[in-house]
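Anyone able to model this chain together with (2S)-2-hydroxybutanedioic acid?
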Amino acid sequence: MFESLTMAPPDPILGLTDAFKNDPRPEKINLSAGVYKNEANQTPILDSVKRAEQLMLERESSKTYLPIPGPEEYGACVRELLFGADHEVLASGRAVSAQTPGGTGALRVAGDFIHKNLPGASIWVSDPTWANHTAIFAAAGLTVKKYPYYDFANNTLDFDAMTAALRAVPKGDVVLLHGCCHNPSGMDPDAAQWATLAEISRAQGWLPLFDFAYQGFGDGLEEDAVGLRAFSTEGCELMVCSSFSKNFSLYNERVGGLTLVAANRDDAAKALSNLKVSVRCNYSNPPAHGGMIISTILGDAGLRSEWERELAQMRSRINHMRTLFVETLAAQGVTRDYSFITRQRGMFSFAGVTKEQVEELREKHAIYIVASGRVNVAGMTSKNMEHICKAFASVLK
Ligand code: LMR
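re: yes, here you go
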């Protein structure tokens, strides 16, 4: 049966971590997959998470199934982080959520839901975007189209081209927007640009779908939600795929959420019933552990402030690494202007290297980055920075 199969290529991001693990060189550095490292080059479990897990061990009394969309209290936590506690979207009951296996699970459920319930809708993604977006939506049966986003020549947002394209997206199509910390470029719209995008969406009648995987990794939990909240006006309709992999450092617990905001409570109930069908056909109902960590922390004032402190530490370390990367590149004799990296946010930026230079970084210097030239700044440390920048200086010569 399987003899006629051909080998599928390795995943463009996670496949590199497999290759990295098999690399025997002790000096190797992995700047490919978006995983946060501390100054000791580790991805530790947050103290707030450890404390929540201790409480859960004492309190948990059953391993019975969760409801298809997960517990209602989990959905309430997700929505509160997205919109803020006092938002009309919450009070009106027109937002519904499903607990999903990570942000990726949310994207797949969203893709299935759109394919089944919004027939004929194409989905538009930024060019460039996370490599897995196109694969997920195509697997769900959607037609994927691209809108311009990043100006590679000037390392900035190509806002004019982006808005021109989004003004031509037909009513009823879906537009995927990165809520903050754009993956792979790190380049986000500013508040005024978000307001313009929201206006275009309302005028055109396309449905915004936010991929919100890095809330709190840019400028803060509230600051990073500026884009989403610009769209969250009276009567708006939108969807959000959010993730707790990064901001709670819960990568392997696969915990995220799909939130749908409908025009009114009745539409929201209809949408939720259909989201449940999509979830049931995918993984039936979500695993409990990760979601319980989130609701335990967010439901306890002490744990919540401890988590917010830990999140702020991660964020400020990443932003410090952005500055240090630019300074150390210059100290190693790189004359190209890399200051744009300090204006970008989140884990990623493009380092402006060609495919050949990416290979040279891996082969000669044991530094792993994604083929597009995307680097994970959150994987840099004060200790490995010199090695990284010497290697970049050498391949850029
Ligand atoms: C990334 O882009 O590196 C992360 O989102 C991890 C992944 O699943 O690709």
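Residues 13-14, 33-34, 130, 132, 183 surround (2S)-2-hydroxybutanedioic acid (CB under 6 Å).
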